[in-house]
Amino acid sequence: MTTGKKITLGFLIIASLSLMGIAGACDQTELEGTISPSPIETRVGETITLTLAVPSDLKEIHRETWQVEPESLGTIECVSSGEKCRKAIFTATSPGSGTVGVWGFYKQTNPQFIAETKIIVTD
């Protein structure tokens, strides 16, 4: 093996080990929290303020995203300011049942599930 090939092989081994170390160091913290009120019971046309509470050791959760499933139940809009969205307003638009869920970022680069609650909308 020539010197150039040895250097290239050595570089590839070091680069591979470095990437494995970085991948192993990714944060694996499971996020958790509670949405209140829970469960949510409301009527078409009504609005309700929802709050996400997280444990003190997870207070750095940020960039929360609220989602209603199915979307036809209503709309949800963040009312918090800055990087954190711990409050949202849900407006019911059609009767049915489903869920409201929250995802957010902690130390990782992808959003992670935090909490979910059931929702019932009546006429």
What does this structure look like?
The chain has one helix spanning 3-24; strands spanning 34-36, 40-43, 47-53, 62-69, 74-78, 87-92, 96-105, 112-122. The termini are far apart. With 123 residues, it is an alpha+beta fold. Helix content is 18%, strand content 44%. The longest helix is centred in the N-terminal third of the chain and has 22 residues, at 3-24. The protein has 1 helix and 8 strands, in the order αββββββββ. The radius of gyration is 22 Å and the shape is elongated. A 4-stranded antiparallel beta sheet has the order 1-3-6-5, with no helix packed on it. It has a single domain (34-122), classed as Immunoglobulin-like (Sandwich), CATH 2.60.40.
Radius of gyration: 22 Å
* Helix-strand sequence: HEEEEEEEE
Classify the oligomer: single chain
* Named CATH architecture: Sandwich
Mean pLDDT across residues: 87
Query: Which parts are unreliable, with pLDDT below 50 for 5 consecutive residues or more?
Result: none
**Number of DSSP helices?**
1
In terms of structural class, how would the helical and strand content be classed?
A: alpha+beta
CATH fold topology: Immunoglobulin-like
Strand neighbour order, sheet with most strands: 1-3-6-5
CATH level-4 homologous superfamily: Immunoglobulins
Approximate strand percentage = 35-45%
The percentage helix is: 10-25%
Spatial separation of the terminal alpha carbons: 78 Å
Estimate the global geometry from the Cα principal axes: elongated
| CATH class division | Mainly Beta
Biggest sheet statistics: 4 strands, antiparallel
**Total beta strand runs:** 8
